[in-house]
Amino acid sequence: MGLLSAPAAVDKREYWGFSLYDWANSGYVTTVGTVLFAPYLTSVAETAACGYVGTTDKPCHTNLDVLGLGISPGSLAFYVVTVATLVSALFLPVVGAIADRMARKKLLMCGFAWTGALAACCMVFVGGGRWELGALLLFIGNLCLGSSLVVYDSILIDIAPPDDRDDVSSRAWAFGYLGGFILLTVNLAVVTAHDALGMSQGTAVRLSLLSAGLWWGAFTFIPYLKLRDRPPVSVVPVRSGNLVRQSFGQLAATLKHMRTYPMTLLFLVAYLFFNDGIQTVISVSSTYGEKQLGFETQILIATILLVQFVAFFGALAFGRFARRFGTKNTIMGGLVFWMLIVIAGFMLPAEQIAPFLAMGVAIGIVLGGTQALSRSAFSQLIPKGREAEYFSLYQAGERGTSWLGTLVFGLVHQITGSYRPAIVALGLFFVIGLVLLVRVDMRRGITEAGNTQPTLV
Fold first, then answer.
1. Looking at the DSSP assignment, which residues form a beta bridge with residue 66?
2. Is the pLDDT of residue 340 over 80?
3. Contacts of 105 (CB under 8 A, 6+ apart)
4. In DSSP terms, which residues pair with 65 in a beta bridge?
């Protein structure tokens, strides 16, 4: 079996359709969510607030007026992500409940993807002091990403048997990193050579944001064509009414009976904490590198490229580790590694490239593996008929929709005026997540959910 080929028990056509949606949305996650948009929106907000882009020598201390609240330009992007996730907490479970009752899951997934891609394309118009437009588009993009991933993650259960989910999930994440690496390489060339191309750096960044939207939208056609729809199974009966009313009824029933699956709930809470830490580290890394450590945009993109390249192999390696040591043990080892990363991040010296690149390698090793294995582990704990609904709750802590981590990071920065204490504060999320995960009995949880036991958990 090849390194990226489909496991024998998985339909090859659907395997490629599933894997290439990770490839598609990673253009948005990396170029927009991780590298370019947060520092760019910060610069746009600083221009609106102070008339210039803040620097270490001349920081911008004027707040933006947002609904009567004073918001630091440096914290704006993180607060937007926070609000998007709070809205997601109400919206995504309904999306999941609808998906579980729909016979056309892939259309729902792709519809959200194409809407988010359109929002990303419109980021090309964010310039000058138009921070309000940028904040709105970031909100829409993140909400649509989370909504599409609710449906996408549930499809893993449809296409892969229990013993193959770690492999399929890990390889899909690897495809995502490969796609993100390719698009970021192109964007690095454009941003680096903006003078030779006859454009400003701001224009080069906006064109890169446009490319991410086009990438996401165009490659989403592949899963739309290759995945096949299946009729709903084991759907919980609720009162009559239209699809939306039935979906609210199913959601209410799930929340009421969630205590029947204590291990599923415990895993979900653990994931909420440690994934908040992971997602916040990812989303703030470019701003931390630019504003705290003093690196130019080109260095930040090159570092993220390195992370993407290493993460491709890291995701595949974690899939192999899971087959040998078990999924839960491998995830816990990854969380210990994350704790060491945030401690090292606090101590990084400014304007020294080598330590910053070494940090990028460390993040790349552990990044994709912990997320891919968490997805496949959670899939084992979901009762049939509620896959998308449970993954909608799972998505509350998934990439690009963290809320508590970004809130803590933004508040600590606003209180202290420095990103260093903000980055080290994120270590608490990994500690709490690890403590909770240790208490999860995977075998018991799989049995309670009525699912087939895999050979190794």
1. 69
2. yes
3. 99, 151, 154, 155, 227, 229, 230, 388
4. 70
Q: What is the rounded CA–CA span in Å between residue 116 and residue 358?
A: 33
The CATH class for the domain spanning 12-234+241-449 reads: mainly alpha
Reading the block at residue 45, the tokens are 């907000």
pLDDT tens per residue, range 50-104: 776 766 567 767 778 777 778 888 788 878 887 887 788 778 878 888 888 888 8
Q: Where in the chain are the domains?
A: 12-234+241-449
Distance, CA of 169 to CA of 146 (rounded, Å):
17
Residues contacting residue 166 through CB under 8 Å, at least 6 positions apart: 319, 322, 323, 327, 372, 373, 376
Alpha helices in 28-69 (DSSP H): 37-50
* pLDDT value of residue 235: 59
In residues, how long is the chain?
A: 457
Q: Residues 415-429: what's their mean pLDDT?
A: 87
Amino acid at 44: V
- The answer to whether the beta carbons of residues 85 and 405 sit under 8 Å apart is no
Closest among 119, 51, 45, 124 to 287, alpha carbons compared: 45
Measured CA distances, 70 to 62, 151, 331, 345 (Å): 9, 37, 40, 29
